[in-house]
Amino acid sequence: MTARTLLAATVGAVVIAGSTTAASAQNPPSPKPSTTGASTRAILPTVREAAEGLPGHTVYRPADLKALRKGSLPVIVYGNGACATSNLEGITFLTGLASQGYIVVANGAMDEFAVPNTPENTIAHPEALLAAAHWATESKQARKQFDGRVDTTRVGVLGHSCGGVEALAAGTDPMIDAVAGFNTGYFAEPAFGGYGRDRLADLHTPTLLVNGGPDDVAYQNSIDNYALLDVPAALVGDTAAGHTGLIAGLEATKGWQVAADWFDYVLRGDRAAGARFVGPTCGLCGEDGWKVESKGLSL
Fold this sequence. Notes:
- This protein has 299 residues and is of the alpha/beta class.
- Helices cover 26% and strands 19% of the residues.
- A 9-stranded mixed sheet has the order 1-2-4-3-5-6-7-8-9, sandwiched between helices.
- Helix 2 packs parallel to helix 8 and helix 3 crosses helix 5.
């Protein structure tokens, strides 16, 4: 697998979806009573909107902020596949994650349509993710836009493919509390965008790597990166999803559920969510088509 192959493979089907419907919008999702994940989820209605005062970014968030507690919504910043300036490819994935009581700030403006990047002009910009994190937790514009509902002490970074490289790079910043990368990983050599595997040693928070099985061009890369991680971590594989299925394909609902479980576990201390990843009888371990490894994690 080469950097050229991985970065060129991120253009998939664009899924356009509206806001989700709600089971309940009265409170943030409560800790899940079992390890089965999706079957116990509360789904909040969501909206997609511009990030006021932060050009080049889009917000996915619960629609009825006034129904939620002040300071109750953690922030997740997201880097797109191919490090693209459009988040439309992941709209179902990002909407689903926001429906779990998260403020998701994705790279790419509201009206930016996906234009395939070539490996020659695909460049990682982790600073865009950190700018989004600072904006969401520190700016007056975000405080007004989100009516004070942001939990400024809980920030996660997430990305797909080249966007996962951005997430891993941004994840070394002290303000980041949790990291997740889908279909991604640093290359052994040459170091893509100046970010080599030595940077994995600078991660300081629990890190999730997800691949789409042997047909995912990032499959071996995710395995190699996981082996080098010194922080608590999980390696999760959906053996049939391929490179884009968990973000933009038929498996996107499963994809956002895995991401939500990870951030519920790390950012919210939800033990039921953590049980999806931890131990030989973990929740995902018992589901067809999934493989899970973990290290340094506990409930």
